[in-house]
Structure prediction request, 372 residues.
Amino acid sequence: MKIRRIHLREIHLPLKEAFEISSGSVQTRRILLLQLESAEGATVWGECVAESHPNYYPDTIDTARIAIKDWIAPRVLNRDFENPADIHDVLEQDFRGHSMAKAAVEMGAWALAAEQAKTPLAKIIGGTRDKVAVGISLGIRKSPEELAAKVKESAVAGYKKVKIKIKPGKDIEYVKKAREAVGQLFPLMVDANNAYTLDDTETLKRLDDFNLLMIEQPLAWDDLVRHAQLQKELRTPICLDESISSVQRAEDMIKLGSGRIINIKPGRVGGFTSSKRIHDLCRGHKIPVWCGGMLESGIGRAYNVALASLPNFTLPGDISPSSRYWERDIVSPEWAMDASGFMKVPLDKPGIGVTVDTEYVDRLTVWKESIG
Ligand code: OSB
Ligand code: MG
Prediction:
C-alpha cells in the first residue's frame, strides 16, 4: 500500500454542553480531520484527537498539523508498505513524541488497508465482537446533586459504566451522592486527570468506601513510580490513562504495580499497532483494558469502536453515542446505543463503516491544506 496524498482540515464542532475536567474545559471541539489517498485509488477519512490546548497531553491540534506536514508526511508518502503495522516503527525511528499526529496517519493507513481488502476496519485489526459495551464520561458539575442527577439519568439510559471527573474539593461529596443515586452495585468510576499528589493519599483512600470500579490517573500525567506507591495504599484498582504512552510503559506499569487496568486511547499511544501491542501484553497478564475517548466526532469514534471490538476490551469504553456530544454528527448513520447499552460494530460495510457528510463538514471547515 502506498499513501499518495494527505488532506488536512480543521472543523469546529460545538458540544451540546461544555465538558470540564480537572485541567480545563471544552465548549466547541476544534477537530483536525484527515483524508488519506492511496496510490491504488482509495480515499479514507481519519481524525487526529489532539485538542486545542496541551492540558491533557503534549500534542495540540496546531502542533499536529506541523508534525504531519513536516515530519510524518515525508516519511510515509509514496513509500510502499506491505502492512500498516510497518508504519508505526518508521514513525518512531529517531522521532520523539507527537503520538496523536502519528496515530492519525497510522490509523488512516489501517482504514486504507481495510478499504483495499473490502473488509470492515474492525476485522482487519483483529476485532472479534459484533457489539461493544458503552460507558459515559461525565464532566465536573456545579454541585453533587446536579452530578447525581446526571449519573442517575445515564444509568437509566442504559450506559454500562459511568465515569465521573473529579478534582480536589469536588470529589468525596460528589462521589457519595452519585453512588447513592445508582445503588451500591452500578459500575461507577472516577477520573482525576492528574489532579492529586501523594499528599492527598488520605482523601484518595476515602474513595475506597464507594465500591468504585477503578480510579483513573489520579497522579501526574507521566508518573508510574508514585502510582505504584499509591496503589499499595488503595483497595480500588488504579487505571492508567495519560501515563501509558507505549507498550513499554504498560510493561513498566505491570512490573512496578502502578495500576491494574489500562485505558487505551489509540491516539495517545501512536495508533493501532501500539494499541494492539498493549492489548496483547495485558491479555497475557490478565490486565483488563477498555477504550478511552477524546470527544471524537463520528469519524474518530469509528476507529475507537473497531478497537474496542478486540477480545481483551472487557470493560465498557468511553464510546458514547453521537447524540451524547453533538446536535448533529458529521457521519451517517450516527453512532447509536441500544437500550441495553451496546453499540453495533459496523461489520456490513468495508472500511470505517460510516459515511461522512461532506457537505456539512465543508460548512464546519475553518482551513484546509493538501500535502503531496
Ligand atoms: O481523561 O479520559 C479522559 C476527554 C478529553 C480528554 C481526556 C479525557 C476525556 C474523556 C472523554 O474522559 C471521554 C469521551 O470521549 O466521552
Ligand atoms: Mg482519563
Remarks:
- The chain has a mean pLDDT of 98.
- Residues 99-116 form the longest helix (18 residues).
- DSSP finds 14 helices and 15 strands in the chain.
- Residues 3-118+357-371 form a domain with the Enolase-like; domain 1 fold (CATH 3.30.390.10).
